[in-house]
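Human: Cast an eye over this sequence-structure pair and say how the chain folds.
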Amino acid sequence: MPTSRKLLLALALPCLAATAASEEALPVHTLDNGSVRATVSEAIGGRLLSFGLAGQPNFLRLDTRAGNPAAPVDVNGENVGYLGHEVWVGPQKQWWVHQDLHAARARAKAVWPPDPYLSLATYTLEESTPTGLALRGPASPVTGVELKKRYALVEGKPNSLRLDVAATNRRATQVAWDIWFNTRAHADTFVYVPVASKDDVRVEAAEAGRPAPRYQLAQGIFALDVPAPAAADAARKGKVFLQPSNGWLAGFRGGQMLVIQFAHQARAAIHPDQGQVELYHDVEPGQPEAGILEMEVHAPYRKLAPGQAMQAQEVWTVLPYDGPATRTAHLAFLRTHAKELGLSGL
């Protein structure tokens, strides 16, 4: 049954420990149809905190101990890694270029942290129904946009959640951005993306001397390499930029498969600094819970006149999976469910 309530985080999400820094009351809203369960907060950027099969662990990697959710937005502050799912705008290299609140970041063309008004501000809960939630963020003086997010269970698809985002230009001048979905998962998640050619894959290491992510591309399917935690070459840190051949990606972990579907775009619609799908992989040898996988999707890069809006959408579906953790078994499972999910490229 869908619920909406304000509780201490330790009560709302009993599987998570809350430290003194995060013991402020956090509004948590739950969508639960008996098949899947999602939790959302209007705090910390209108963030999706969890998603998974009812009674199963959160598929997302979440750290509510990262900071104080009640803290005001600080344009001089750093990112707070609450994780879960959040929405940015791209391209990243322009995050701090079009603002005058932080001159040093503008001069440096800083690529970190993300806009705190989008990712850390408290959003306004505008709609709460048995099937969905709608939240509106503040107009950001950093990027000039206002985000409106809607999370909704999908009628006739009991294992699915739909995420709709609208970005509106609230400046008196034109802005140009894309909508950027960022889903944080655990580093040992196996990920598959339909990709036609190696020419559609670009890999960048994040640190000198540390290996970049590795992958296999065969029969039109990209598979991210997931090393054994104790492997001698387990370390990974970097990003893979992909031009997918179809609009979906899938992740397998812990008895669940998450499929994220989106509107497939031609390469020309995506800003050249980005990929329509991006995978950031950080693996800490011997510390599987310390790493992270980011499953990211970019919508088209667009110029927006004052007051103009653009929209983007993802549909998430989670299914139980009890097979082996191998590429062969994972792809066989995807092919078995391809028709019902509407997946092409398999």
User: Anything to note?
Assistant: Helices lie at 9-12, 43-46, 103-108, 116-119, 327-341. The longest helix spans residues 327-341.
